[in-house]
Amino acid sequence: MKFNNNYDVVVIGGGPAGSMAAKYAALKGVNTLLLEQKKVIGLPIRCGEFFPTARELEKIFTRSQLVQELYNIPDELIAQKIDLVRVFSPKGTSFDVPLKGHSVYREKFEQYLLEQAEKAGATIRMNRPVEKIQNGQVYTSDDVFLPKVIILACGPSRTLLNPLGINIQKDLAVCVQYVMKNLSLEPEVVEMHYGNVSPGGYAWVIPKGKDSANVGLGIRKNFYNENILSLLDQFLKTLHLRGITAKSEKCSTIAGLVPVNGPLANTVIDNILLVGDAAGHVMATNGGGIPVVMTCGRIAGETSADFIKHGRPLFEYEKQWRKECGREFANALRTRKRADFLVYKWGWAAEILMRLLGTKVISRALKCSFVGF
Known about the structure:
- The chain has eight helices and 18 strands.
- By secondary structure, it is an alpha/beta fold.
- The chain has two domains: 2-73 and 106-169 and 261-333, FAD/NAD(P)-binding domain; 77-103 and 171-259, D-Amino Acid Oxidase, Chain A, domain 2 (2-Layer Sandwich), CATH 3.30.9.10.
- The strands form three sheets. Strands 4-6-5-13-14-15-12-16 form an eight-stranded mixed β-sheet.
- Helix 1 (16-27) runs parallel beside helix 3, helix 1 (16-27) runs parallel beside helix 6 and helix 6 runs antiparallel to helix 7 (315-342).
- The longest helix has 28 residues, at 315-342.
- 48% of the residues are buried.
- The model has no long low-confidence stretch (mean pLDDT 89).
């Protein structure tokens, strides 16, 4: 094993958060390395692949400087443009919320972001899992890197986070979805279903074309501890009754874990910055946040470069992401806690409340935390 001090910044994880961190650190002129354990980024897919347009996001994150990538997504990365989110109450009452967005080809999208980081000057190393982080050093099977800053964008990895005293797994949502084709659906409409269909979470139908979609659900273990696939199959039966899945085919099954307890109290530990799922940068209401982790990744990369070149304190990273996104994270967590009580413990009360509040209030509640999943 050899020591390597050629890099000022080492980013661990090549998803949207890591790619943005690497890109913006490199753009500021510091030697940046990104280590990704996968051979091919973006696979297997572990999300619903939907998020609103940048214009919609500006209405939600009023204090945030969204990254330019959110405004300039190439058409070839977009699977389907979305105009509406249809929210279903526990008893099946529907509420139509206008919301412009798009479902993306997640693997192509992540590969595009990684290519942008490389073009900016970052060195990308695929198939390079990190074994541990110790004393400010990054250990792989072949090298020990000695960077000035480490950016952890590794997701909720017990292997890397727990030895650092970080427990991001306190409240995890288990998510599973089928990629399906030959569906009969409205391609411009995303569906979100609440109640017993998905205890502690929600179920979704996210179109990826005229007759294809991601159909899935997320639950929390303290609400449901049985086979989640059987729950998803029950959801398919409700779609079948509406004629959506009458001639459908399952192409693949996708599963993953998502932390939904809000951001960590501290996202800066010595020379380590936490970003994305590793920091709890997930909207607690929907388990999503592609745009927000991209923004936080940019802040992490720029702060790291400014620390190295100009002595800017690393804790400025946390101050800035909280200024830009912290209020929205807090709103989402409050909304989720209220939903825990109303929707999942007292479903009848949620049904009455949603009908009384109507589409306008549901839309406001949805959009304050609806940032991509």
